[in-house]
Amino acid sequence: ADSLMRDLLGRPPGESEAEALRSTIGSSQDRSAVLLLIGRALLNSSEATVPAKDNMGDRAQWVRNAFLRLLRREPTPAEQTAFVDALNEAAVTPRLLLEALISSQEYLIY
């Protein structure tokens, strides 16, 4: 959960936040589901800095940076194309793509 806050909010959790997160995750039988719920809550918080689609600049660079920040790797050419193409769809937002990344098995086991 510490990494979720660093990845999505750009800061570590405060002491009380860290304790609450540890308690919540520790009491759950499904760690992945809890991490996903926490991630969604963080993405929807006023502290999250997710650009509006029309303010994100170079979409390919934004996708690359999101992969580097969340998965600690470059996107494959197929992933890069798929994510940039998805951003060209009206219903797909940067927040939705970030949620897809933090929902991935790769992120959850990282």
In whole angstroms, how far apart are the ends?
11 Å
Annotation, overall tally of beta strands: 0
Largest sheet: none
The proportion of residues in beta strands is under 5%
Computed structural class? mainly alpha
Description of the structure:
The protein has helices spanning 2-9, 15-26, 31-43, 59-71, 77-87, 94-103, 105-109. By secondary structure, the protein is an all-alpha fold. The model has no long low-confidence stretch (mean pLDDT 88).
List keywords for this structure.
7 helices, mainly alpha, globular, 110 residues
Concise summary:
The chain has helices at residues 2-9, 15-26, 31-43, 59-71, 77-87, 94-103, 105-109. With 110 residues, the chain is mainly alpha-helical.
